[in-house]
DNA sequence: TAGGGTACTATAAAAAATGTAAGTAATGTC
DNA sequence: GACATTACTTACATTTTTTATAGTACCCTA
């Protein structure tokens, strides 16, 4: 996940589209397999790594870590490490992270409508 | 793209998440590399295969075909073949397809805001 | 001293998505 | 008959994403 080939056509295509369309740009940021689910859970407030893990049955620790890092890199979540043993790490949405709510709401509304077809 | 392994963990995870969260369900439907861009262009009205191709620099015919098929399967677009030579095929959003507009709008708004950070 | 809890990291492999290159069908024009 | 046009299809290669499995560090408790 962290090693994309910046010389690939795929990379160039994504970059070009992201540049032109803000909606594609946004979709690329929140578009991992688990990202939206993580964000949705965090909408209710901060959670620890382990809590997220329990809330997302099937996710591996590696995936959770990767997605959280990506979200952190994109300033969607903040990561706060407490100097304790055993370790405790809190994840919380940033301001711009919380502002994803309208998107999630619209996706949810549309998804429900589409399911009913 | 058409051969997903229904026995894979990945498939199971996606299905489970889609089931629980309508927003993830929606994201899975509109979430190909080019899907959103295609949908965004079609928001202004129907387009031919070749027109879409021109509007999306970098896309290959194969990818365009695949994405359009997926959108068609998901009832986002309709495909109308005109019995002419050379062939002419029109793609147009369905009702539920046009209803994706709020999502695209919100993504666009958020994307712009995020770019400005 | 052994084991437990927490949040990771490293490495490999599998699966999925995307790209490349070539070919097809039908018909009208030169 | 060769060629152009359009919307594909097919076989294959590459890239990206996700999963699997096994570790690590830290201190506390028994």
UniProtKB/TrEMBL annotation, chains A, B:
<dbReference type="InterPro" id="IPR036388">
    <property type="entry name" value="WH-like_DNA-bd_sf"/>
</dbReference>
<dbReference type="InterPro" id="IPR036390">
    <property type="entry name" value="WH_DNA-bd_sf"/>
</dbReference>
<protein>
    <submittedName>
        <fullName>Transcriptional regulator, HxlR family</fullName>
    </submittedName>
</protein>
<keyword id="KW-0804">Transcription</keyword>
<feature type="transmembrane region" description="Helical">
    <location>
        <begin position="24"/>
        <end position="44"/>
    </location>
</feature>
<dbReference type="Pfam" id="PF01638">
    <property type="entry name" value="HxlR"/>
</dbReference>
<keyword id="KW-0472">Membrane</keyword>
<dbReference type="InterPro" id="IPR002577">
    <property type="entry name" value="HTH_HxlR"/>
</dbReference>
<keyword id="KW-0812">Transmembrane</keyword>
<keyword id="KW-1133">Transmembrane helix</keyword>
<dbReference type="GO" id="GO:0003677">
    <property type="term" value="F:DNA binding"/>
</dbReference>
<keyword id="KW-0805">Transcription regulation</keyword>
<feature type="domain" description="HTH hxlR-type">
    <location>
        <begin position="21"/>
        <end position="117"/>
    </location>
</feature>
<keyword id="KW-0238">DNA-binding</keyword>
């Amino acid at each position: 996940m962290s090693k994309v080939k910046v010389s690939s056509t795929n990379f160039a295509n994504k970059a070009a589209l992201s540049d032109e369309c803000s909606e594609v740009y946004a979709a690329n940021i929140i578009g991992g397999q688990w990202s939206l689910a993580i964000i949705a859970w965090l909408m209710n407030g901060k959670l620890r790594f382990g809590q997220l893990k329990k809330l997302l049955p099937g996710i591996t620790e590696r995936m959770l870590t990767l997605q959280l890092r990506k979200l952190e890199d994109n300033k969607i979540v903040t990561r706060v490490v407490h100097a304790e043993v055993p370790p405790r790490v809190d994840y919380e949405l940033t301001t711009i992270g919380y502002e994803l709510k309208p998107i999630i709401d619209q996706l949810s509304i549309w998804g429900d409508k589409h399911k009913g077809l």
